[in-house]
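# step 3/5: fold
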Amino acid sequence: MSWSNIYFIGIGGIGMSAIARYYKFKGLNVSGYDRTPSELTAELEAEGIAVHYEDRPDLIPQGPSDTLVVYTPAVPAELEELKYVQSHGYRVIKRSRMLGEISEGQKCLAVAGTHGKTTTSTLTAHILHESGEGCTAFLGGISKNYGTNLLMSHNPVVVAEADEFDRSFLQLHPETAVITAMDADHLDIYGDLAHVQEAFRQFASQVSGHLIIKYGLPIGKDDTPARIHTYSFDCKAADFHAENLRCDNLGHYSYDLHHPGGVIRDIRVGTLGWVNVENSVAAAAICLLHGTKAEAIRSAIGSFSGARRRLDEHVNRPGLTYIDDYAHHPAELATAISSIRDIFPGRKVTAVFQPHLYTRTRDFAAEFAKALSAVDKLILLDIYPAREEPIPGVDSGIIFKDVTAPEKVLLKKEELMQYLEKEPVDVLVTFGAGNIDRFVEPIAEMLGKR
């Protein structure tokens, strides 16, 4: 590699920060810009990566010949730093292309899907690590087992979360891949479900060895050169599926995994809910096809603590439970709420939801209302805009008006803590992909004292 500096525009993103850590580990000079400080940027700074929070081209390493610039499509095109590097001779590439280049020449195991991919890829990496084989893993969330979104290994195997946003996953050419879901999402990019599915089929066409799809997804043998396998939570027609399911009183399942080569009995899932049984079946399928031993898979699924903000337990004792989850799409919310209902039958479920993006709220308002109507009480916050400007007539009220939950309230996020301090709680869940994560520790601390 001819680069001595790697500069990241949008370094605080979950995918960007993993690649930044990778190149820091490789001994390069790594630095970057992000719009706002966060827990993740503080960790990067503690690891010796310089991060600044003002749009200042003068802070970019001055030397286009030995500086590679990586940017995320989430940053606005009018950002001065981005315009500067594009006009001053730097090599400027998207994060997705960088991940594609890193994985070239290595055995790539990728997990794609509109939901479920972070937990599934993190568990896959954990299985390979615990088995002793190891892998380099670029994760879309923070592994609770390792406290990071990057695992490193000298073994030439890369586990990658294959993100469909901005068609990023089309930069990958995996040997083995999973597709967990193909729901309508990112319609600001794709326009409609048909174009989402077309992109997933294109991804499938780039898989060379084994393609594992959730049972029922519209992908066939004409879409890929890979051998197709199916998986499911409990459908016996799928190649990989769970049987003999049982759940303990804290929401953890045990099951027998049926697969084409036999049965792995008595797998206990270290994370909550039926959705994580399904994710563990997908991860086990990748690892079995990769050649991992059955006993290593059973053990690692049991010791897996999950990914931060994915059905993440913070308080869980008789009569009081607090869970935080990243769900920001109606299908994700419906799945998470169903899992929580299944784990805690008969208990009152209160959900706090912060919608993410004006376009997503506009496109799925009815679907959000339907999914959120399945809780006993909804606390709905204002929209988190992320990269978007406001859209006239689009606010949380267009979801709120159609929610039929027995109780509902609309709050500004600044009012949330004061409201919850007075609120009786049985099962509380916070949902969203915006800055609702800033409330997780204060809520857990407050409830932990009750």
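# step 4/5: annotate
The chain has 14 helices and 21 strands.
# step 5/5: archive (pending)
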